[in-house]
Amino acid sequence: MSDPMRPPVSHHHPQGTSLRSGTSGPRASLRTAVVWEVLKEALDRQVKATGRESLDVLDTGGGSGKFAVPVAALGHRVTVVDPSPNALFALERRAAEAGVADRVTGVQGDVHGLFDVVERGAYDAVLCHGVLEYVDDPAEGVRNVAGALRDTGVLSLLAAGVGGAVLARALAGHFTEARHALSDPAGRWGEGDPVPRRFSAEQLTGLVQDGGLRVGSVHGVRVFADLVPGVLVDTEPGALDALIKLEAAAAEQPAFHAVATQLHVLGEKG
Ligand SMILES: C[S@@+](CC[C@H](N)C(=O)[O-])C[C@H]1O[C@@H](n2cnc3c(N)ncnc32)[C@H](O)[C@@H]1O
Q1: Residues lining ligand 1, CB < 6 A?
Q2: What is the pLDDT of residues 206-261, one digit of tens each?
Q3: What are the CA-CA distances from residue 253 to residues 99, 207, 257, 263 (Å)?
Q4: Which domains, from first to last, does the chain contain?
């Protein structure tokens, strides 16, 4: 059975590296498997609830279409709003290569000016993955993405978790940076931190509720994947699958939300 979010396994990790980097191969599947499963189930529920096979999906800050293109491959119509022309160009190419160009529309825009470029209340599902970290006002951002939903729509929100960054810095021996991230209001580990803002599960669920949505589920994403040396996964037969299953099991448990690299919240309307 082929899964668009699980590219074929490759075995080229230098010894001793963690599974954090890389955009394809096992690292990519490890990073996206939990989100993809939750999202796919949510879209299936929307199909049943609406009675429509083809949903209208908005991917805010969808970038080059890492999620948008596989969602379109399920048969849905996807609009990607992103401020970056380069990302939109890459999206167009990715959609064409996947044979879904007719179902993917790229629009240059911003979550803050979302309704300058898309219609309010017009989407069955809205994705906002890895974007809230970078926007000027996360509360306004979530209100806007929620405002794009139809009365029974669903929001898929993914953002960096503060606890995961603390743990990763500490395990890399950067103890002062880890302590900085722990007490910093934005969850940053220092001046050199490329991520402007991280969130706790409570902050994200609070934003979703303030946006007028119910919290359907919370998942911790990449609890172990960024910490495990790549060599452990490469050398042991079946280790990658076992780690993916472990990630899926831990994702559901609130205790692990506190140390996940990313947090996924499903918001439901209606
Ligand atoms: C980390 S990437 C995530 C891309 C994609 N959502 C994914 O999961 O692969 C962040 C994306 O957010 C976009 N972005 C940054 N600021 C934004 C804003 N204010 N509104 C919408 N998108 C924004 C960037 O251009 C970039 O494509």
Answers
A1: 60-63, 66-67, 82-84, 87, 110-112, 129-131, 134-135
A2: 999 999 999 999 999 999 998 988 888 888 889 999 999 999 999 999 999 999 99
A3: 37, 21, 7, 12
A4: 26-161+199-268 (3.40.50.150), 162-195 (no CATH)
